[in-house]
Amino acid sequence: xxxxxxxxxxxxxxxxxxxxxxxxxxxxxxxxxxxxxxxxxxxxxxxxxxxxxxxxxxxxxxxxxxxxxxxxxxxxxxxxxxxxxxxxxxxxxxxxxxxxxxxxxxxxxxxxxxxxxxxxxxxxxxxxxxxxxxxxxxxxxxxxxx
Length: 146
Prior knowledge:
7 strands
């Protein structure tokens, strides 16, 4: 029964994390921007025509399995880490910009950081030019394919 509940919670976490994987843009902004910004964007936000996109989505679960913490594998513990970071104009994760949004188990944090720095992205574009832009990405650690 507990394993079934754990599986249901993981599926719910994966669904919620997928919703969070949308890049933050001015169009997605809910609250009005602070009055002191001339361009209508909140501090730290950038305007994009096309958001950053993971080049090989199938790579993400494979990397998560490769970096799965052995202690959690042995206990059958699954979970996820949601990270927010900036994808640089060259498609790499910009060092020093990775922030944790949520983590289901602390042991997943370090492997998630290793995974995110191995990913490559199609950078965001604005007016046809590649630019650095923030993105939120869930990294799901599952023992079996969902």
